[in-house]
Fold this sequence. Notes:
Layout: H1 2-10, H2 12-35, H3 41-44, H4 49-62, H5 68-97, H6 109-116
Amino acid sequence: MSKVISVFKKAPFPAVVTVISFLFFIFIYSGEFVSAITPHYVRKLMYSIPFITFGFITFLATKRKLSCFASCTITGVLIHICPELLLVLAIFFAFADGDDLATKDINKYGKALRLTNHSLTKYFPKKIPENARNITFSYSPEFM
C-alpha cells in the first residue's frame, strides 16, 4: 500500500489519469461481453492505449526520469489527443470491417432476441425449434 501512496505523491496527476483511463478501458471492454452479438475482443484492446500511455508516464515520473512538471504537461496534452485518436481508430475499424453487429449465425439467435427487446420481436419464438429446417436468420440492430 505504501508503494501506491508513493506513486500518487511522486506523480499525482498522471497516476489519477492512469486510474481513470483504466476504469474507462474496463467499462468499454466489459461492455463487449454484454452487448455484442459478435464480439471483437482484440479490436476493443485499442481502448487500452490511453491506460498504457498514462501508466508509462506515471512510471517514468516515479522513477524520476520525467520531472513532475514534464509528466503533468505531457499528461495534459495527451488527455486532449487520446479521445481524438480513439475516435479515428474506431471510425477506421467500423468502415474497414463493415457491419460488426450483423450476424447470420443461428446459434446467436437467442442472444440477439434478448438484446433487441423491441415490440416487433415479442412474437418471435424464444428459441429455434429442434425440428426446424432451412433456417434463415439475419440480425442487424440498426434496422430494428
